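Give me structure tokens for this 232-residue protein.
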Amino acid sequence: MGKFFKRWSWRLIPILVGILFLYQLWIFGHILHWKNHDPTTSAFMQSQLNVLRTNNPKANLSHQWIAYEQISLDMKRAIIASEDGKFMQHTGFDVDALQSAFKKNLEENKFAVGGSTISQQLAKNLFLSNKKTIWRKAQETLITVMLEKILSKRRILEIYLNIIEWGNGVFGIEAAANHYYNIPASALTAKQATYLAAMVTNPRYYDENRKSPHLLKKSEIILKRIHSSKVP
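Here you go.
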């Protein structure tokens, strides 16, 4: 019996490696397709839609794709100032931010901050779950490398702004601008943009707590940094 399992375990390894390779190829193909075609959904959008439909089977997400040119410059600056100040300089990973996050998490003895770049966040949103595992982090790293190699910084930022969550069932900047201000994303002012950028870390909570002192304070800090942000 032992020899039987040993023999089959050795046969199983190349099969698993093959499946893993095909999965990476599937991801690579999607990213390549997105150079010229817009994603219609993401893994995270689908998971949130499933959650909403547990209470309301007819629930739908509020989401509308818009081109990069239709997003206000202040919004692009604000999201970079808030989420990834070195977006234009790094190749997917901000080592200083990761070290700083690791130190803070160690001091607080909990996962307080992530230190992820916009590219890393996009990788997670497009393909992965929110479970914090070594496998997910390794896969996120590989997808981030693919995104940075295949897509331009402009395209990465365009997709990111169009698919991230901004409230309960609200995804993408056009839906967010409509949801909070009843205006298109092209009309967002610097103050409105920094407020929306400050919400990204906990959008569903801030959707219900729009006057949160922490949210207002964070948006003021981003507003001071906004004009130093470099955008693609």
